[in-house]
């Protein structure tokens, strides 16, 4: 006779949260334990969440690269997803329409599996021109609404302080020497700002 093993009442298996993105997720330039994934997992566990955050960040990845690998990344048997992509599209000056189509495809794949998702936005610098900035910045809220995703409007905004009066000098102190990637303290600011959204998402699966 087969034995059926079940968890005691009120106890569930550990939640698996997929952090899917580029070097900002991967932890580029940071010592082990100080990147986005380990810092987020530590904060969630400190808050009483039984969660494992899976690092699916690939340094240098574009939204097209993300679209090409989202299917097998979801084969990890995950419960929820954070998507952080678009930064490298910006660095290469890629067409915002292509970025929108690629991230849209990623969200559709996640939605098809019935998983809650948090989309982290990016913001284009002004030197690309007003039309480019409007198209790029606007793709994230539009995609989140169209796909029923939660939206964290700007991954890097927590480094800037007050959005009405951004402190550029303070922001630079939270970046690595390359001026692109956050240092450990910068990551901690991002995690702190994103935490309420992540916890709200986890409440759907815990």
From TrEMBL:
Where is the SGNH hydrolase-type esterase domain positioned along the sequence?
19-188
Per the UniProt entry, the signal peptide is none
Q: Name one matching Pfam family.
A: Lipase_GDSL_2
Q: Mind telling me which PANTHER family this protein's record contains?
A: THIOESTERASE 1/PROTEASE 1/LYSOPHOSPHOLIPASE L1, THIOESTERASE 1_PROTEASE 1_LYSOPHOSPHOLIPASE L1
Its protein name is: Arylesterase
Q: Which organism is it from?
A: Pseudooceanicola antarcticus
């Amino acid at each position: 006779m087969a034995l059926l093993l079940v968890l005691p009442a009120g106890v569930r298996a550990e939640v698996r949260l997929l952090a899917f993105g580029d070097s900002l997720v991967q932890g580029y330039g940071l010592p082990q334990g100080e990147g986005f994934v380990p810092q987020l997992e530590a904060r969630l566990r400190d808050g009483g969440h039984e969660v494992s955050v899976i690092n699916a960040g690939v340094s240098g990845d574009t939204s097209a690269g993300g679209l090409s690998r989202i299917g097998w990344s979801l084969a990890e048997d995950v419960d929820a997803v954070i998507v952080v992509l678009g930064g490298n599209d910006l660095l290469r000056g890629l067409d915002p329409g292509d970025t929108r189509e690629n991230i849209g495809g990623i969200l559709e794949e996640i939605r098809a599996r019935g998983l809650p998702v948090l989309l982290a936005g990016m913001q284009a610098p002004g030197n690309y021109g007003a039309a480019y900035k409007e198209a790029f910045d606007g793709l994230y809220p539009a995609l989140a609404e169209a796909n029923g995703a939660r939206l964290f409007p700007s991954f890097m905004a927590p480094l800037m302080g007050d959005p009405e009066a951004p402190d550029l000098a303070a922001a630079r102190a939270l970046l690595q020497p390359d001026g692109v990637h956050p240092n450990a303290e910068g990551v901690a600011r991002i995690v702190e700002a994103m935490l309420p959204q992540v916890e709200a998402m986890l409440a759907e699966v815990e």
